[in-house]
Amino acid sequence: KDFPGAQTVRLEQNYRSSANILGAANAVIAHNPDRIGKQLWTDSGDGDPIDLYAAYNEVDEARYVVERARQWVRDGGSYGEVAV
């Protein structure tokens, strides 16, 4: 519309996330009526299952995230490997 003749290039391959993460992302994105159709995919394998935690409120959510990060470090990981 703004750029007549422009070509749309869909960047669908993801090099960072697992197939489980991308499957969840695709399910959420599919509910957006304004989206441009695409299907995210990866060659990285399924990865770990997705955890779901239903927090009571923002404070409960923050405590849960901090405790998961601390447990990761206690199990031998580093805080540099943690992303929220």
TrEMBL record:
Superkingdom in the source lineage: Bacteria
Keywords per UniProt: ATP-binding, Helicase, Hydrolase, Nucleotide-binding
GO biological process, one term: recombinational repair
Example of a GO MF term: hydrolase activity
A single cellular component GO annotation: DNA helicase complex
Keyword Hydrolase: yes
Domain UvrD-like helicase C-terminal: 9-84
PANTHER family from the UniProt entry: ATP-DEPENDENT DNA HELICASE SRS2, UVRD / RECB / PCRA DNA HELICASE FAMILY MEMBER
Record-given protein name: DNA 3'-5' helicase II
Gene label: uvrD
